[in-house]
Amino acid sequence: MSRKEIAVTVALGCVALSTHAFADFLSDSRATLGMRNFYFNNDNRDGTAAPSKTEEWAQGFMLDYKSGYTNGTVGFGVDALGLMGVTLDSGKGRHVGSTMIPSDSDNRAVDEWSRLGLTGKVKMSKTELRYGTLIPKLPILVANDGRVLPQTFEGGQITSSEFKDLTLTGGRIEHATGRGSTDQTGLAALGGTRESNQFDFAGGDWKVTKDLTAQYYYAHLDDYYTQQFFGLIHTLAISDNQSLKTDLRYFKTDSSGANSSGTPGYRISGFTTNGDGEIDNRTWSAALIYTLGGHAITGGYQSVSDGSNFTQLNQGSLPDKGAGGTSLYLYTDRLIQSFTRAGERTAFGQYAYDFAALGVPGLKASVMYLSGDNIKTTSGDNQKEWERDISLDYVLQSGALKGVGFGWRNGKSNSDASRNQEQNRVFVSYSIPLL
Q1: What is the pLDDT of residues 196-205, one digit of tens each?
Q2: Which of 93, 112, 269, 299 is 20–30 Å from 248 (CA)?
Q3: Tell me, what CATH number does 318's domain have?
Q4: Prediction pTM value
Q5: How many domains does the chain have?
Q6: Which of 307, 328, 325, 306 is nearest to 317 (CA)?
Q7: At what angle do helices 19-27 and 3-15 cross, to 10 degrees?
Q8: Planar angle of CA 181, 30, 397, nearest 5 degrees
Q9: Contact 224, 192 (CB under 8 A)
Q10: Quick one: which of 388, 292, 390, 290 has its CA closest to 339?
């Protein structure tokens, strides 16, 4: 039985329950229609490889239905996620399928695309099991939402808060659907051209005190790697409107299965110690965030070991051109670069301001600068790169258009390890509650 059939079976099972139980299922249901109008422009400033410029504009619709749970010791429910994209402007010379919009057989942007995700869920006490379409946000796996439609995954996940101040999470992911695709693929690491269908993970967040949280997660992508994550987050309240947050992160990633043996198709791209594509990486970072009223200043440092690039799930090298697009649980995962190449050492700083402090709620702005060096690639050592990002957001606070959000992102990157680029993203978003 497929995942979608299981989700439908759960829903039909709910219908067969008593009227009272099904009433709870409906009364707690929520549905929203999200709309996102997205313009994307990425200008490659140098190099001869195509494309010199990616430029696309699309409208996205996201119908998100979340049911309540049937009454009883064990509650059942079902969620549904309907996604649809409509191309507003693109062209063969300005379109890259893995960026935002799927490609047709002629490598042109399709006129529209859509997909449906169903998730069956079971809840008992403070433990919930979900099976079907997932959008995880975990240190070892973060679904990408950087274009008009989000990346989704298929699998099962269990989350438990039975113990006070401790949240446990575990599960298995089997397939992914890229942000610019309608088709599921298997799983891989960047450079891998053969699919894995098993990504197992487990971990937890422990609130040691009201100000200190400790994290540990373990992940295993069959035939590619095992990864451990350790994290500490501490917030020191200095006064009512002043605080200092400390965020420490450490990833330990080692080869596994076919990647260890150098099997063709399972090797990762980029620099590796023996040139064999084997994963061997340690990445740590430390960040301090000082907040005073509407001001927030972030300063930090990240170090990537030189055995290989930092690695997590990335389907960008698989044959499906729309499978690309990933997010990482790193401060350095920015608009253009991620600063995760072998040996890279990155210093970064950000200034952000919330204009609510000046009586303009809904308006926020930030600027960030990152500088990396000591990069090792297959073409040389001690390479450097930098990136500057600007962010501006405003959400209307009143009137007929209350809740409409406007956003602009601008990034500029110069790198010895890749093409120099400048990127702009402009988007308008709005959510309408239906239930």
Answers
A1: 999 999 999 9
A2: 269
A3: 2.40.160.10
A4: 0.92
A5: 1
A6: 325
A7: 120
A8: 85
A9: yes
A10: 388
